[in-house]
Each structure stands twice: as structure tokens, then as C-alpha cells.
Amino acid sequence: MSGWYKIAKIEEIPRMGSRIVQINEIEIAIFKTNDNLIYAINNICPHKQGKLSEGLVHGDIVTCPLHNADISLKTGEAISENYGCTKKYEIKIDNEMIYLQF
Ligand code: FES
Fold this sequence. Notes:
By secondary structure, this protein is an all-beta fold. 0% of the residues lie in helices and 44% in strands.
């Protein structure tokens, strides 16, 4: 059954960084950009399973720490290489609290 999961306050996610949450054994990385925008994508790179939460955030992109593919935080898509896509999750903010749809 799908629903909205309470994740964290916006301020608890480091700017240009991330925090991992685990729902039903799936690791999801919650990212905050330099502009304080929040995105949620599967933590696993679609190339060879690098941990995207350990990557470098720039703009609305995270660069995978393993082989430097740029992954769009907006779509989960690898935009620098033809590596496919990691799952993107919908989020909503209510009263500074982040909720994720799963
Ligand atoms: S595992 Fe991410 S680019 Fe290779």
C-alpha cells in the first residue's frame, strides 16, 4: 500500500548533501540543493550500484562517486552517460517537514 512517509525537517538535510532513509529495504537518498530544493531518488546508481548519497551535489545533479556519471535529481536519469535511470520519488513539504510518497 502506498502512502506518505514523514522523513525529516528540511533543516536536518545538509545543504548540497543528503540523508538516507530506508523504506521496505529500499535505500532512498533525500538530497538538498544549494537552493534548498529537496529531491528523493533511489540511492543506487543505475550504472554499477554506486551510492549516490556519497556523490557530489551541484545544481540539481549528483555526480556518482564511482564513475562520475551525472544523475538528475529531478528525474533520476543519468544525463552524462547512457546508464539509464534510478527511481525518483515524489516528495511534499508541509510546515518545513519533508514527506515522501512510497
Ligand atoms: S556506478 Fe555510478 S557511474 Fe558507475
